[in-house]
Each structure stands twice: as C-alpha cells, then as structure tokens.
From TrEMBL:
It comes from Promicromonospora umidemergens. InterPro entries: AB_hydrolase_fold, CocE/Ser_esterase, Galactose-bd-like_sf, Xaa-Pro-like_dom, Xaa-Pro_dipept_C, Xaa-Pro_dipeptidyl-ppase/CocE. The keyword Repeat does not apply. NCBIfam families: CocE_NonD (TIGR00976). Residues 330-566 form the Xaa-Pro dipeptidyl-peptidase C-terminal domain. This is CocE/NonD family hydrolase. Keywords: Hydrolase.
Amino acid sequence: MTDYRTLDAGGQEIAVRKDLRVPMRDGVTLVADAYSGVEDKPRPALVALSPYGKELQALALTMPPQRRPSPMWDGCIEAGDIGRVVAEDYVHVIGDLRGSGGSEGEHIGNYNAGGVSLGQDAYDVIEWVAAQPWCDGNVGMIGISYFGSMQVLAAAERPPHLKAIFVSGGHYDFYETTYHGGVMWFMPRAAREGRGGDSGWAFTDRVRSRMLETYSPEEIKERVAARLADPDVAAWPNLVHVLNYPTNHEAWFDIVLNELDGDWYEERNPINLAKNIEIPVYLQIDQGRGWTVDGHVELFENLRGPKRLDIGSYPPMQSRPWVEEHDKMFRWYEYWLKGVDNGAMDEPAVSVFVEGSREVVTADQWPPKEVEYRPLYLRPHAKLSAEPEPMGTAHAAPDGFFQAPLTVTDKVEILRWSTAPFEEPAELIGSGAAHLFVAIDQDDTNFILRLWDEAPGGSRQLITSGYLKASHRELDEDRSSEGHPYHPHTRAVPVEPGEIEEYVLRLYPFAATFLQGHRLTAELSNAEPLADEHNALLPPDAFHLPVGRPVTHTVYRDAARPSRLVLPFTTTARGR
C-alpha cells in the first residue's frame, strides 16, 4: 500500500490509499483504492464495486464530464465524482471485483450466476472498510449501472455496517438485461468486451464460462448447433464467432446460449432478493431507458424498507465520468450516514418528471396519479383514434411491410400511425400495452414499437418503446392485466406462417404530457432504425439483434381484429 497526496483538477488536496488488500472469507484477496480528505479523522465511506477496473474510475479526477456523442465518452467510468465525494467529507472506496483488475479469483458466468456470490464479496468489502481507522463505521455505496446492481446484491446480504444505498440505472431482472421481450440486446456485449464507447471488463481472461463448466462437450456442441440453427443468430457475424470460439468471450457465450428465461437468470436475481433488503434504498433512473425504468419500478415495489423512486428527465445517457444526481445522493447520505435531519424522509416516496409539461409529480406510490387505461385504435390512412374501426377487412384493408434482412439492405421499413393534434394537454403516466393482430409469412420475427411526441414543427421525442419476439408471444394470464402484459419467456413457440395472431407488447413505463397541437405517433418495425433522434444519443452497440430472414408482416386493424394501444391517461383529453 502506498500513502501519498495528489491534487484533483479543482486544486483540492486528496489523500490516496492505493492498492489496499481486502481479504474475502474464502481466502481470495480483492484490491481497492481509497480517496479522502487529508485531515486524519474517520469518515463515512461510499463503496463502489465493478469489474471495470479502479484505474479507469480514477480518470474522474482529471477528465471533465463527457456527454455523448463525445469521442472521449466511456460508458464504464461510472463510480462517481471522486473530488466531489471527498469534498463532501466521505471516503470514496473503489474496488475491483474478483476476476478483474488487480483482484484475485475468477468470475464465473453472467453477472452473478455461478461461483462465489458477488453479494458475498461485497459484504466482506463493506465490513472490512467499516473496520478501518479512516472509516467511522457508516458505509453507503455509490455508482450507476453495474455499480448500481452491485449495491442491490450487497444490500440483500445484509452487511451490518451498510446503512443505506443510492442506486442509479442498475440492472435487475437479469433476463431483461439482455433479452428485451425475447429480442437479444447487444449492449451487454459492449460492457464485457469493450466496444462502441465502453472500455469493458478489466482482465477478462479470468472470467470463466459457467456453461462450459456445467455441460459436457457433447452437450455444448448440441446447444451451440441449436443456436446456430436460428437464422437470426446465423446471420450475425459476432454471434457465429462467439459460438464457435467460446473461450474468447466466456460471459457473452453464456448469455447467447441461454435465450430463454428460467433458473439461469433467476438465481440471485435482485428482484427476488429485494425481500431481504431492509435498509433505506433510493432508486433513480431517467426516462428513455425503457427496460431499466421498468426494473426500477419493479424493484421499488418489492422493497420492504424505507425507499424512494425518482424518475428523471430524458435523455437517458448520463455523462462519463458520472456526475449527475450527486446532489440528491449526498442529501440522502447526509441523512442516513451523517445523521443530519435535512428533511430527506419528509417528502413523498415517488417523484416523476413529466415530459412535455416539464412538471414534477410526487406521490407515495407508482404511478403517482390515478390512471385510466384507454385505447387508441389503429385506423386507415395511418391514423390513431379513440374510436374503434367499424368496418370489416373488405373496407379496412390491412397495413403491411416487407423487411429484407440487414445482410442485404440497410433500409429499415417502418409503419406509422398518428393521432390528430391534441386539442388540450393529455397527461399519461405508467406502463402500457400494444395489441397487434398480425400475420407473418415466416415462423418468427421481431416486433419493435416506439411511441413519439411530435411537435407542430416536426421535432419529436421518444416517449416509450416495446419489444416482442413473435415466438415469445405466450402470456401468463394470471400475471397479466390491462396495460400490464406479462410474458414468461420460458419457451419459444414458432408461428404458423399465414396465421393471424394477437401479439401483446408491453410498453415500458413513461410519463409525458402531450401539449396542445402535438401528436402521438406509433412506429412499428422488426429491426432497429440505424439512426434517428433517439438512437443518436446511444452508444453504437445499443441495438437489438435483427431478423435474419425476409419477412412480410400484415397488420390487421378492422372491426373483428382491433389492433390498438392501451395507454395510461391521467386526464380527460383523447387523441382523435
């Protein structure tokens, strides 16, 4: 260990304790750095843990925050503003998880599946930190995304000195982290391998495949062959490479081989562990993050102790190094770690920024207002209407589109339907659903539905989205309700080509007011648009696996097959 002093970019003097060796209960040693003020006194500590490498996080001392699309933006610098943490008189402890950076041991499987529980390691780190002379025994945690997920895993282990957590942008339902509605999402590949603006895991040569350890070579060969038989997988070069050379991409290989939900993802799932968490939890997430907003709401509803849910404004990608939400975080920790009665617990449990009106709505539950689920029907001439279609197919001919695979075209076909301009503001808060009656000429496809707020001048903002792989259309009727479809994703059922099926997509939670003169527009495709107003804000790898076969989609919207959106209105205004 080296003790020395340095200056951050603001001229602040900081004591740095480098390469601290933290013993785990199984004999493995992790490493961590600790940053604090130079005055020799104990302080509360904020712990950050990930596989991204503590040296990368140290760039927060020297690099100004970068917003996308800056070429300096790195999605893995997520442990927080070191200088700000020190200035607020905390010790900032940044550690490498086992199997990464300078820490010993091996990381097995995806996130927290297999091997030693990452929550167990976090418990040992927290208790070790609390026992150090530079810590006063009060410990919280810090960081977004992977760092945020680690906070939930740690809290579920109930370390005695972990007094509260502040989680932003974490990943909770591990299946939904990689398969949105059964459609594979590529962003986890970027976080592991270092692609498209992410440095990725540090020293991934000590990450082992749980699949390779669990199954015989013959079984692995059979499972790989089954995945390569999927034309979507077979058409994508990276997936062909991963499946043929698994030891180069162990964690990603495990995900690709597990395309269905079940024990693989449920083991140590933070949503399931939430019942063990009794300490105060603050959950923060920005709109536009789709499945992560959904996960924050689900986690909030399962927590038992003091809790807060804060849904912020669009756009979804924060600065790197991460500096947003620090004011809220330090107010939270001032109350729970320093014992300052600053009124942090005198406010409603839920706070939601409403796009459009730009108002903040508060309540003690989600959604923060009473909602009425109302339909908007797909109608001829690309219209959305509160009134259903009275005509049959002969007069309300179906819409349709043909999508060639992206191996032969770069054009993504999109169907659109829009309301008339709203005559008065219409506020919607909650989740929703899309009921689409569709026939396809293949046994599978993707459905990607996105809702936009279009202003009179033509500018627009994404409001929410929904995804569903056609073969994952099965619903759990007992867990589904109006505006809340639930797909178990435990098996894939091929579609009978030409058969008209009702596909019910879950629309992720959102909060938006459509102002007078604005329109609500729904867009349907089976592939991700290569660039638009929303995707330009995201890293290059934040897209979904395209369909690897040509598919003709016929969308019915007649009196017998009323394709529609079901949306959470809080006002009396309706789109016409």
